[in-house]
Amino acid sequence: MSGLVYERVHHNLETLKLTTIKEMLDNSLEHAAKEGKSTLELLDYLLEQEVKSKQDHALSIRMRMASFPVEKRLDDFDVAFQPSLDPLIIKDLASLRFIHNAENVVFLGPPGVGKTHLAVALGYEAVKQGFRVYYANASQLIERLMKANRENKLEEKIKALTKFHLLIIDEMGYLPFTSEGAHCFFQLISRRYEKSSTIFTSNKSFGEWGEIFGDHVIAAAVLDRILHHCTTLNIKGDSYRLKERRRQGLIPHV
């Protein structure tokens, strides 16, 4: 290969942003020559490495964008510890069919039973499958929506949140919403209705959501949109955190 051709190849690879091929080219050419690889075989290998590199980079960006508080996986969830959960439903959710169908998921139950674990684990799997995901604590999300509303940027904020295939809203009900927060939240849910999926976790039954919103009418309107296409799982088991503390002998068995 002449010096001119070599320089042109490197320049074109850089122009096309094929950085992985550019970095691997010299060693790959030497290896191909020693192994007697054909030009087509070499090209196939280099293109495969470029695609993998770009996929890994895109995955990394989606993971950062998701803003997960911790890394959780479905394989790490002990379904047997929560007999109220149907393993077949968890398996169906893991297929991510609900995202393809723009359906919602609600995990209800007391603290420590694994609601956030399941929500984040599903989000993690969705990111790996190429979906855009965003996690938010409910109270923090409301604060951001109200801030945007006061700056006349609520439409912009909601538009940004509607771009995610899956929105995870964690800990609904730990803190009540103000009237302004409730109205902002209603607008967000209305915009995502039948267009994108949302996972909710809450320690409150649906009958108590009026207390969260401070308005039973808004709560009913929100729930009507959430539950229209939705899988609800009510986890009634023990707390994983208490189980672990008992195992460590920090609290007595009862």
What does this protein structure show overall?
This protein is of the alpha/beta class. It has helices at 3-15, 19-35, 39-66, 87-94, 97-100, 115-128, 138-150, 154-161, 179-192, 209-213, 216-227, 240-247; strands spanning 104-108, 133-137, 166-172, 197-202, 230-234. It has a five-stranded parallel β-sheet. Strand 3, helix 9 (179-192) and strand 4 (197-202) form a beta-alpha-beta unit. Helix 3 runs antiparallel to helix 6, helix 8 packs across helix 9 and helix 9 (179-192) packs parallel to helix 11 (216-227). The chain is elongated.
Radius of gyration: 24 Å
How many beta-strand runs?
5
Mean pLDDT: 92
Q: How far do the termini sit from each other?
A: 77 Å
Strand order of the largest sheet: 2-3-4-1-5
The tally of helices reads: 12
The proportion of residues in beta strands is 5-15%
Major β-sheet profile: 5 strands, parallel
Spell the H/E element sequence. Answer: HHHHHEHEHHEHEHHEH
Q: Provide the low-confidence segments as ranges.
A: none
Helical content class: 55-70%
Shape: elongated
Q: Which structural class should the secondary elements be placed in?
A: alpha/beta
Blueprint (SSEs and pairs):
Layout (H helix, E strand, L loop, with lengths): L2 H13 L3 H17 L3 H28 L20 H8 L2 H4 L3 E5 L6 H14 L4 E5 H13 L3 H8 L4 E7 L6 H14 L4 E6 L6 H5 L2 H12 L2 E5 L5 H8 L7
Parallel strand pairs: 1-4, 1-5, 2-3, 3-4
Key phrases:
254 residues; alpha/beta
